[in-house]
Specification:
heterodimer, A: 90 residues, mainly alpha, rod-shaped, disordered N terminus, B: 588 residues, alpha/beta, four-stranded mixed sheet, two-stranded antiparallel sheet, 25 helices, disordered C terminus
């Protein structure tokens, strides 16, 4: 399947929202701005905006993974009181 | 040469680490998980669940019995359950037996555990390096994923069941590609000696069979080498586990307690429940297979998909995982619909295919990172770091050993669990040969007594006689009928052939009552006459029994030792007062 560029920002935006909603809002702002700039003929500025969308996606993933790691550390330090299937081990 | 072809880690072109440094770091981090053994020496924690309470001591008892290879139908292990058929225990043809023979119970476990994790590292690396991520570019990813795989908290009592799966696939693929060497046959034919047929034998043979049939269908050509490799594996699994197959398919009068299994004793037939179960195993895997928190892997796969804008290999592996998870989650429905016509669905539990999840997750992770690497090397490195940290955190044995080192243990270490000095005291007090009487336990695992040579009526067993189960039930009939939960637990499952108390419950903690807990049972209603009928003369109890005299138990002495996790209240079974001749009173 060929790379379909038109759908990429949508999925990037979705992933950004899922990982860290505030970053998703910022990415949405950039995406909308890029669309406006493209309509106004400012193609270079629009491309820059798309790069920013990608950067915010990366940021949101990093934030989500850090939060996930901390939650996992907390969870496993207390496991036994939370999930029964793991309780048997702990 | 492009920047991505630079030798070294393949993740960053700046400050590139040499291959040797990367190997050093990976092997160093791999070995960190074994440092607690070095520091704690013989006082390390070993997982109790299914390990010390069961499987590992079964091997020890077998080795000590001298009946490792005696599969005759009359051979019994007297020490357990008044004579458990030898065939109900593990095969003698196992590397695990060899380690116990060479190093003893404790060090045999440590050696086997280390070997299993180290094998995981090299087996994953070989598979990735040869078949999925060849070349030096992906060295960091290959080493990183192999390292994480080697840290997954597997149950090493199953040998290389989990950690050698990549190695088996490596050999299958070598055979598929017609570039197999003699060692591929060696790997496949040694695997049955160091894995369990119940957990992995059948799924692996099915996988090999699918590869064989795929090649036959695709190229209309018989791959005889693969055929013979699979045939050899099948025959070896059969020979190695001969006693199990004979007991299952030609039991000759022996009826296993498993015929009374109800698959639904702890499972509800509900759609929502099945969905939740599917999600649970998808996101954290299963502890018998090895805990894997899959969220970072999913994110990596999604990102890889966005990066290259087309379907990826990682996606295919993840869809396979999804299929296994759905099969596991909805297996209850399969049993409900077809279990009556196909009893094997209940007795074997085909949902055990979940044992392949840790390997498949790691394979998906490596493939996703391989696709991420080109555009986002730092992100790939970050994913590796996150997955490594959460895997280390999920390693229960490592965590409990850190707690031991820090002086804040939550569970007994091996020395405290087996409490040899305490049991010597009890033995000396009773002053009779251990084979001249039987013991039973309350609030504690019988495994520790078995380890110390006592003959126990109670045990954790995967297979034992149905008659024995019914006989044992008579002892606690009144007690379990007080609480439907524990009654169903025993009647419809019963692998824990333990003395159950309605006041203590059926959770694992009810059989791990330590000396600091000082608990009591106010009213225990057991039939001491039935207990005496089974030669049960002593009760080792972790709790004080307030109505002991009323039920025919005579308190003898309480035993404690600084090195013991247990405080044992020794009761002599004298039989119920109603046993006086001519006394018509029969409260049991």
């Amino acid at each position: 399947m060929e790379r379909n560029f038109s759908t990429i920002p949508f999925w990037q935006l979705t992933l950004t929202f899922l990982c860290f909603p505030p970053a998703g809002l910022i990415a949405l702002f950039h995406l909308v701005s890029a669309s406006v700039e493209r309509q106004n003929g400012a193609e270079v500025a629009a491309k820059r905006r798309l790069v920013l969308v990608r950067k915010w996606m990366t940021t949101s993933i990093v934030i989500a993974l850090i939060a996930f790691t901390l939650a996992a550390l907390y969870f496993f330090s207390r496991a036994g009181e939370i999930i029964p299937s793991i309780e048997t081990i702990y | 040469m492009t920047k991505n072809d630079l030798p070294g880690n393949g993740l960053s072109t700046k400050n590139t680490w040499s291959s040797r440094t990367l190997w050093g770091v990976a092997v160093g981090l791999l070995l960190v998980q074994f440092f607690p053994y070095l520091l704690l020496w013989d006082e390390a924690y070993i997982r109790i669940h299914d390990t010390l309470e069961g499987e590992w001591f079964w091997y020890t008892i077998l080795v000590n019995s001298g009946k490792l290879f005696d599969y005759s139908r009359d051979t019994v292990i007297e020490q357990i359950m008044n004579g458990l058929p030898r065939r109900a225990l593990h095969t003698g043809w196992s590397f695990i037996v060899l380690w116990i023979e060479l190093f003893g119970t404790y060090w045999g476990y440590i050696f086997n555990n280390m070997l299993a994790h180290i094998a995981g590292f090299f087996s994953m690396f070989l598979l990735l390096d040869r078949h999925f991520l060849p070349g030096r570019k992906n060295l960091t990813i290959k080493l990183g994923v192999s390292l994480i795989f080697a840290w997954i908290p597997i149950f090493s009592i199953f040998g290389l069941t989990v950690t050698a799966q990549p190695l088996v696939l490596y050999s299958f693929l070598n055979l598929y590609q017609r570039r197999a060497q003699w060692w591929d046959f060696l790997i496949l034919w040694l695997f049955p000696f160091y894995s369990t047929v119940v957990w992995v034998g059948i799924p692996i043979l099915i996988l090999g069979g699918i590869i064989f049939l795929y090649q036959l269908g695709e190229r209309h050509h018989w791959n005889w080498k693969l055929f013979w490799a699979l045939a050899g594996m099948t025959v070896l699994y059969f020979l190695v586990n001969y006693q199990l197959f004979e007991l299952t398919f030609a039991p000759s009068g022996f009826v296993t307690h498993r015929v009374e299994y109800s698959y639904f004793y702890d499972r509800e037939l509900s759609f929502v429940g099945s969905v939740l179960k599917t999600l649970e195993i998808f996101f954290i895997s299963h502890f018998h297979a090895g805990t894997v928190l899959s969220l970072p892997i999913l994110l990596a796969a999604l990102l890889a998909r966005l990066n290259i804008g087309r379907h990826t290999q990682a996606e295919r592996v993840i869809w396979t995982i999804v299929a296994i998870c759905v099969f596991y989650g909805f297996y209850t429905w399969i049993v409900y619909l077809f279990g009556e016509h196909f009893p094997m669905l209940v007795e074997y539990k085909f949902e055990r295919v979940r044992i392949m999840l840790p390997f498949l997750w790691m394979l998906a992770f490596a493939l996703a990172l391989g696709q991420l690497r080109v555009k986002s090397p730092r992100v790939a490195g970050f994913f590796l770091a996150v997955q490594f940290i959460v895997t280390v955190a999920s390693h229960d044995e490592f965590q409990h050993n850190l707690r031991q080192l820090a002086g804040v243990p939550k569970k007994p270490n091996f020395k405290e669990f087996v409490a040899e000095d305490l049991y010597h005291q009890i033995d000396a007090y009773i002053g009779r040969p251990k084979d001249s009487y039987r013991v039973i336990h309350l609030g504690m695992k019988p495994a520790a007594s078995q380890y110390n040579g006592f003959y126990t009526l109670d045990a954790l067993m995967a297979i034992y006689g149905l008659d024995y189960k019914h006989q044992f039930r008579k002892i606690m009939k009144q007690e379990i009928e007080k609480d439907e939960d524990i009654m169903v637990y025993y009647d419809e499952w019963g692998n824990w052939c333990y003395l159950l108390s309605s006041e203590l419950g059926k959770e694992s903690s009810a059989f791990l009552i330590g000396k600091d807990q000082d608990r009591v049972v106010e009213e225990l209603n057991i039939d001491t006459r039935a207990l005496l009928d089974m030669d049960g003369e002593y009760l080792f109890s972790a709790v004080r029994i307030l109505n002991a005299e009323q039920i025919g138990l005579q308190f003898e002495k309480t035993f404690e030792h600084p090195d013991s996790y247990w405080k044992v209240h020794l009761y002599h079974v004298v039989g119920p007062p109603a046993m006086a001749p001519g006394d018509p009173t029969d409260k049991f």
